[in-house]
Amino acid sequence: MHRMIAYFVLFSVFFFFIKVNLHNTNRRTKQATYVLLVVVIMQVVLGILTLVYVVPVPLASIHQAGAVILLTVSLFINCDLCVNYSQRRRNRVGTVS
Predict the structure, then answer these.
(1) The pTM is what?
(2) Is the dihedral of CA 88, 11, 15, 70 positive or negative?
(3) What is the separation of C-alpha 16 from the centre of its chain, rounded to a whole number of angstroms?
(4) What's the Cα-to-Cα distance from 30 to each of 22, 48, 55, 95, rounded to whole Å?
(5) How many whole angstroms from its chain centre is CA 77?
(6) How many CB atoms lie within 10 A of CB 92?
């Protein structure tokens, strides 16, 4: 089950990365999606290495820390996109009189 969720997250982040970079988003959001993609790839590699080496504690701990970093970057992107959306909406409402 964990492996299937990892595949889903990897593909979702990859398609999100493509979508953000094709649309007109700000530079900070695009940079954050690059970081998100790198962190997800790092998580996949760490997960595979953790299984190959039969779950050594230091490697498993790094994998857990990577999950925290992945969550943090995801929340940053979410916050950044919400702020951008509300600013665009406020500007749109302000111009229509």
Answers:
(1) 0.85
(2) positive
(3) 8
(4) 10, 27, 34, 27
(5) 7
(6) 9
* pLDDT in the model for residue 85: 76
Residue 54 backbone dihedrals phi, psi, to 5 degrees: 55, 55
Distance, in Å, from the CA atom of 17 to the CA atom of 77, rounded to the nearest integer, reads 11
Question: How many angstroms separate the CA atoms of 8 and 14, rounded?
Answer: 10
Per-residue pLDDT tens digits for 14-52: 999 999 999 888 899 999 999 999 999 999 999 999 999
Nearest to 49 by CA among 66, 33, 32: 66
Residue 55 DSSP one-character state: -
Residue type, 39: V
In degrees, rounded to 5, the angle at the alpha carbon of residue 11 between the alpha carbons of residues 9 and 12 is 60
CA distances from 49 to 18, 54, 60, 68, 94 (A): 27, 8, 9, 18, 53
Return the residue matching tokens 């909406």.
Answer: 89
